[in-house]
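[job 4471] stage=fold_predict status=RUNNING
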Amino acid sequence: MELHDLTAVEQASGIRRREISSTELVEHYLRRIDSLNEAVGAFALVDESGARAQAAQADRAVSQADSWLPVLHGVTVPVKDLNLTAGVRTRFGTSVMDLVPDVDDDVVGRLREGGTVMTGKTTTPEFGFPCYTESDIGPYARTPWDLARGAGGSSGGAAAAVSAGLAAVAQGSDGGGSVRIPASCCGLVGLKPTRGLISNGPLPDGPGGLVVQGALARTVADAAALLGVMTGTDDGYLRAIAPEVPSLVVGCYSAPVIADTVPDPQVLVAWQKVTALLESLGHRVIEVEVPLALSDVPHFERVWSAAAAGIPLTEQQVEGLRPLTRWLRERGEALTEQEIAEAVALMNRAASAALRASQGVDVIVTPTLAQVPALVGALRDDDDPAGDFEAQKAFTPYTSPYNMTGQPAITLPVHWTDDDLPVGVQLIGRPLQEAQLLSVAAQVEAALPWIQRHPEIW
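[job 4471] inference complete, writing structure tokens
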């Protein structure tokens, strides 16, 4: 067994017991990054000297510790290139931005406080807007299960890193599915927590508060451990995973929400597998209505466009933007402040109605994506940004409603096609009920274990 075969929790345990060192772990991952990153496009920047210094510091803390160390102390956790990292180059996935911040994002600060080691910045598309990770400043992120197909986005680099064994866990962010989409494409667990559970500071939240910080991992336990680090509760969520889950009301639906599209049959096979499993485990499974009407989708789109328009850029920088980003920005700039406020209010009204409708349901089960992982370039259309946007909606019509409601959601890698392409299923919980959601996810994982399944490049 090699170091990257261990889960993040196992790595941290080995470091605490002094069976392995953080330095050994970092050197192992740096070698793998050097060997595989060009193929999978996981990292936009590798910070070898910084990672070695952090690992040495983590090892010194182990040698001086009498007992307690943080849950993921000494474990490598790469950071998405949308997040500010003090002293480390940050480009937001775009050629028009290039800075070395003097502050960390709050979540990065939490990762440092938790004793984790940042090996680098993971690739993301321009400002994180598309659901594919095809950036102009680095390699395209590809799913290690089929290098002709994309890793999804916008946390595509983070997902590619974990799936290819370049990190055991990774931080990501999710404004419309950007953790869950790549996790599904790469055969991973992808956790989007409740809105507000993790600070997005020091920069202000965008309109509607859609974006949250999240975790990409190979196991539910690793996702829970990383959530604990990012919330400052250490192993609180890991310990909260219940060994036995009482019978719950599980709602399910498979009809696409934000686009009029037809799910791939393999997507429905995966969804049916999980709903049948949960019923066999003693949960009461019922069909529920989709949470939003198609007439509510334009509110989200206006808020999304307003976020693009709100990025402070010079005229020269705007000229260098990708066609999709410019198109979104122009849509947002065409809105008045009153229209943006109305869009946020109408979006929140629709989200409130969706929450009220699901009050009697503990967990909701949907497909994560409507399609199997897309070929690189299949969704992107620089000549027709509007068509590009519609293709993205058809690809991922299930994730963004839960950015609107703010509910926690997790995707699980429960199925592989005959071509060995991963297919995820999404579980949505009640607001602030991460412990219950993680417990149900762990139940599914125990019944449909996936930890020993790896892509060929593993």
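[job 4471] summary: The chain has two domains: 3-293+348-447, 297-347.
[job 4471] exit 0
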